[in-house]
């Protein structure tokens, strides 16, 4: 009898527990199919691509959600507690959203995370400077752009990473460039818009780097110098899509698709035949794109589907005469990028760089000289001064140990000391070991299987002592 | 005492005892697992090291399975039959192409490699790489009717133009047997490049091209050079050795139907460059070589790779009958690349030698001629085209299947199941991981790339653990290493688990580390699934030659030629004792160079040591002799200073005879049986 009673009690407990679980899961808000986007009242004109004003920092913007399966339903504002909010980024499990926001008009922009189940937000970054464009990294960290206090940057932004609670903040870019609109590709690297701001302004390009700031390399730049105006996002079929503009004041343009496998030589404009402007693009699981599109300058940007195969604009998902719709994302789970290991050791204060042959240079350079001069010396330039000159080895190689997290440029000099070529600003992270095939060489070139003479000896430590520089120059002459 | 109370007390005692055992036990287990895995969060699973790595016994049989592993294949002249070499199945599988069923499984030798059909299609010849012979199979009766003796490690096969001779590429002895098929006797032995494998007769029937996998042995710093051996079919002599500079692992070869171009698969390694990054093709690139026969036989190399995507471990190449397309399998990325040959012709016809040199290191150039990448099952190896060229058959080695690809639509149209075990065991998963580049940044290489056949690639790398240019290391064989810890030349890794763990991803694969499940699988495979081949070249039956016996005495001696006692730590046998010829300890042998950190060296095992040149930690000794004649003059690596040249030769002969213990057991059984029969 007791056994029967115990059995009944057991089953009752199990039934109550199960129904509790069942009902609580029913109560959980499902975000599947929901689209989240930024909407603004102002016009996306007169943007500043250096400081981010009206481009990454848009007043009175709101992040809203839309259920596209409920036609005619109004959107729900998710950031009503903020003066302005934008740049929604969905976590890999689809349960949280990173965004940047100003609580009050006078506050700096900061990074926040919202729990999409209960719509509660918490501040991730509390900084004095403006922070924008957050993106999830796979190791429980995030990357974002932060306005720099460095005078040389003149309002430029550097990239930082930190844990999801804001701890272990690390700066990962160190050159006098500004970085915006980062995204993390499935290979685990960060794709970001990079633009030189010192000593003069350069054209924007996508660079790619590991989350620890190592192995930075050029990913894509438009040969015409067109402006990159938003994140480069990966599609399921190995393409990267983004917006490219020929107008330095407007964040609108065409949707460009490039191949991840060969980004520098695979550009396709998906919308060159489509009348109107595109502001942002997001690849959906279905293979179609979510786009912000307006037919003419007098119209507002609406949310549309776009088929990249047929290059056809689909139905409008949302339009509102009072708002521009920007930066749409799907609030779904998505694949986590690879977790890349890090070689950075903060207790080591230098990095190493080897160049296999400085005489291998930009193919366009040969157009400037009838015979490309042989490089004899190499000069390392700091932001304010020369860090030293030394001889390249006879095979064109050199090998340096240089202070970590410090920007420098490499100049190649002919035997008369004339500058032949200057590379872009680079930096090495602590303990980073990095290799270059040449100097501004074709980025698709791999190193020849040849042992660089320079690595037969210890690296040259930079800065090189001035007396030594003179001696070496005299030796060369 | 009432029964419930008794039970309650008993339960209480058991519970208390469990707690007493659980907490210290768990702590001990944690410490044990941490020490073996060099991590702090590996799950406390005994199965990782104590179940999956079982090599023998019932448990091993239960958790493992017998796979077929289709490796190479060919199609009958009428296209109705497919003949598939099942490497692990030790069989030739006959497949009916209409029903897509295996209709016959003919048992052959050990580690079969390639198959070729007689001109009339009634006979098949299959090379047995670990048996040193070729099985002759009567296809009408599906029976092995003869076994032809070959050189060591027979691999690629080709008939002569008249069909009367069989060329057998001996991959281990680096030569080619020419066998008269009317008598079955070897009539010639031709020297080939290092570790030759693939062979193909040109369409005009005049020459045969033989690929080689390993580079010629050169001092570290010198360029890698592999040789393509060219044989004149009418004279049956080598007419030329063509150098493939900066390339190795030429597995197979194909000709265009006109015969003007020969194509070989190849890898362009970057072993001379400090291994400091993977980006920008800094470790390995993969492609094909072209021999432009009408253009003074100039050699051109082009890549399959792209700037952010690599197609590792190319294995086979075939060309469509119309000469328009070449198909190359990349076994490390489960992919067939389709090459447009007209585009290749256009590209190379206009290019100067300087431009061609640049092309060979350019990742973007492949966009000129690659028209499709076709995904396949795990580890695509051998390829065969149907006689009409409309179908491409792909041996998916670690899938136990054959993929069938329509060569016009370039789509996979069917998958032919050869009937292997349906399940994937832990060790099999490990073998898939070993052979797949998906765990390396941008798929640039896999374990197999530097350890082909799970052995070593004969190259010395600058792994740059600290500074660049320092500590160059000779790649070590992975065969039978499970019982010979520690690992690495420095012996810093006490387990395979640690060797392939986190540091492996930080400094070698440079992408996400293996999950613990994957690491379990990889370790299980390395420990249980990688074996030495029998040492048929120097010790075929366990009986040592006179010279080897003299060498054995020197190896085991304790007194020098002058009657002086050799210090114990300077005798060969002290550091190289027992089953694997290693004491598994670290030693100083005076071979550190100025560019080495000051370390002691892990004593390597010596099984099949003849097959692992170059020698010493940095590969400076091209031969076993050089270990002492050039680099052992201080007598710290064993006492040799008193020895005559003949004695050193004897010692080397003995070292070459060393083989894996599993073959000793068989041999000793065989010998016992032989002795018994002699006594009877």
Task: Write a structural description.
The complex is a heterodimer of chains A (477) and B (680). By secondary structure, chain A is mostly beta strands. Chain A folds into two domains: 35-330, Neuraminidase; 350-476, Carboxypeptidase-like, regulatory domain (Immunoglobulin-like, Sandwich). Helices cover 8% and strands 37% of the residues of chain A. Chain A is built from two helices and 33 strands. Chain A is globular, with a radius of gyration of 26 Å. By secondary structure, chain B is α+β, with helices and mostly antiparallel strands. Chain B folds into three domains: 42-64 and 427-528, Cytochrome c-like domain (Cytochrome Bc1 Complex, Chain D, domain 2, Orthogonal Bundle); 70-426, 7 Propeller (Methylamine Dehydrogenase, Chain H); 546-665, Orthogonal Bundle (Cytochrome Bc1 Complex, Chain D, domain 2). In chain B, 22% of the residues lie in helices and 28% in strands. Chain B has 15 helices and 32 strands. The longest helix of chain B is centred in the first third of the chain and has 35 residues, at 3-37. Chain A binds chain B through residues 187-188, 215, 217, 260-266, 338-343, 352, 354, 356, 399, 433-435, 437, 442-452, 454-459, and chain B through 220-221, 223-224, 246, 268-274, 276-277, 279-282, 285, 306-309, 358, 361-365, 367, 441-442, 462, 464, 467-469, 502, 505-507, 510-513, 595.
